Amino acid sequence: MANNQRAGHRRSNLIIHMVLTAASIVMIIPFAWMILTSLKTVTEATQIPVNIFPSHPNLSNYAKAFEKSDFAHYYVNTVFTAFMKTVFPVIFSSMAAFAFARIRFPGRTILFFIIISVMMVPNPVFYTPQYLLMSKWGLVNTVTALWICSLVSPFAMFMLRQFFLGISKELEEAAILDGCNPFQTFRYIMLPLVKSALVAIVIIQLLWSWNELQWPLIINSSPDKLTLSSGLATLVSMFSTNYPVLMAGAFMAVIPMIVLFFLFQKRFIEGVAFSAHKG
Amino acid sequence: MNSRSRYVWAYIMIAPTLLGTVLFWTWPAIYSIYLSFLKSENFGMVNHWVGLANYERLFKDKEFWQNLRNTLYYAVMFVPLTLLFSTFFAVLLNAKIRGLSAYRVIFFLPQVTMPAAAAMVWVVLFARDYGFINYLLGTHVAWISDTRFAMFALVIVGVWGAIGFNMLLILAGLQGIPRALYEAAEIDGAVRFRKFRYITLPLLTPTLFFTTVVLMIGATQIFDSIYLLIGKTNVALPAVRSLVYAYYQNSFVYYDQNYGAAIVNILLVINLILTGLQFAFQKKWVVYD
Predict the structure, then answer these.
(1) Between chains, do A128 and B220 touch, taking CB under 8 Å as contact?
(2) Facing residue for A20 by CB, picked from B6, B103, B227
(3) What is the mean pLDDT of chain A?
(4) I want to staple B10 with a disulfide (CB 3.0 to 4.6 A). Which of A99, A210, A254, B193 is the partner?
């Protein structure tokens, strides 16, 4: 009886593995195709019948993507924007989150409501007025416009507040007795306690800004002011059917996030899952 | 430290977030409503109040109704399919098997992939003559330029991108179900399917509810994959054009920002209604202890 059950378990586990492996292959096909195509020649990439592997794999398409477009600019703009859209929102949000979670002050409820109410509004609603604001400040087609509207993040503030709410009161009281002002309590006592939440938010902010398309597309159009995301969209019109060069560009655009993902995959997955649960 | 100076610290610490939110988010949201009642000329230098004229035009516009239909059609296909696949794989991964984290990583990979890059490779995969998908299926379909298939192509790309993330959420929900319940069922001799149907599924409904709400909000805002996969000159565009795509086109290609504002305000109302409906209906199917 017990033996039978174990054999049955092993059999069903085998089936589960087979289903999951098949699904994994399907999930991975686009990545494999991206890399394989980037190593082919144009003729090979559009050959009929389809041939899967390049006959003489080489990296010339990668060089071409750099030479024939502003790829280096896209990279610098994207890295810089991602940095600005991560550092400032995380600093500002954690301060505000601490204040909302741990200090009782007049107007707390209404101010909190003002900040989180924008989370319910779809992003495109903001874009035209933000564009008009940027244009009033003379920032259209500048790298500054890519990040300045995202200096603060109501979403990150909301998430971090949940964390601060969960910390016990005693540590804080000890700090107050020691004569810490609220900022010192925040900086030296509370912030180290929410380190894992901060890491999660850093990862989410990085990922979002790295991959964002619509705002960069709206606000900047000159080639040296594009991000990788909006830059790829213009590469399509430049190299319309030169798929190998397009795939080389696409691969170079995704590789930093994929490397980060593999290095921090546990935190990545926890961070994103966590954010959704709280959001 | 007295409470007055604690207040002052609180105000100082929330000031950047509060000011930034009001300036960059709250004010734009309100201004967007105001814009939809105006007719602007000379790139917004001259504004006339036109009341509901933009909305009147919108409701008489056949294209708007088509775009609305496309958006809802996409959501109606994308949301259930994503839920179904995510739940299926989450249940499989909830079994005690080896290599669990490897599968988790693989399924999650599309989530960290830039939509612009992913869309480009899907264009190649979907190509009619030399595309890998037609090669595999032995078909000869112009997936992204045939009005009959373009929507399916978008749904496939959307579901591919969304499974990993939602699977994780559902997996977390599954792991929160107490083991003891299954053990009790096993003593009663319940088989796998019955255990799933009468224990797992009901206890998973709060997670599924949350996932559905988030997926719906995301689905109604589809833009990236239409812009990248279908493109501006594709004959299939009218068959897939979403509200957000139409907003983008009207506001930043035709420079009719007032009409564009009206479109996204409708989207806001639709989102509020859909979310409200889901909260109203949750009593019917969501099981809370």
Answers:
(1) no
(2) B103
(3) 88
(4) A99
Interface check for A144 against chain B (CB to CB < 8 A): the answer is no
Name the pLDDT band for A278 (thresholds 50, 70, 90). very low
**Residue-wise pLDDT tens digits, A245-261:** 999 999 999 999 999 88
CB contact under 8 A, B13 and A186: yes
* ipTM, two decimals: 0.91
Contacts of residue A274, Cβ cutoff 8 Å, sequence gap at least 6: A159, A197, A200
- Going by C-alpha positions, the residue among B121, B48, B114 that lies closest to residue A227 is B114
CB contact under 8 A, A34 and B121: yes
pLDDT at A3: 61
In a 3-state reduction of DSSP, which class is residue B84? helix
Taking residue A174's Cβ as centre, other Cβ atoms within 10 Å add up to 12
* Model pTM score: 0.92
Q: Please state, in angstroms and rounded to a whole number, the distance separating the CA atoms of residues B138 and B203.
A: 42
Among B117, B108, B84, which residue's Cα sits nearest to residue B211?
A: B84
What residue ranges of chain B have pLDDT lower than 70? 1-2, 42-45, 190, 289
Return the pLDDT at A194.
86
- Which amino acid appears at position A52 of this protein? I
Task: Compare CB distances from B22 to A96, A114, A157 and report the shortest one's residue.
Answer: A114
How far is B278 from A25, CA to CA, in rounded Å? Answer: 35
Q: Which value, in Å, is the radius of gyration of the alpha carbons in chain B?
A: 24
pLDDT reported for residue A8: 67
Interchain pair B251, A118: CB under 8 A: no
Q: Which of chain A's residues have a Cβ under 8 Å away from the Cβ of B261?
A: 128
pLDDT at residue number A276: 54
Q: Which residue has the tokens 């430049």?
A: A238
Cα three-residue angle B204-B113-B88, rounded to 5 degrees: 25
Token pair for residue B32? 């967007």
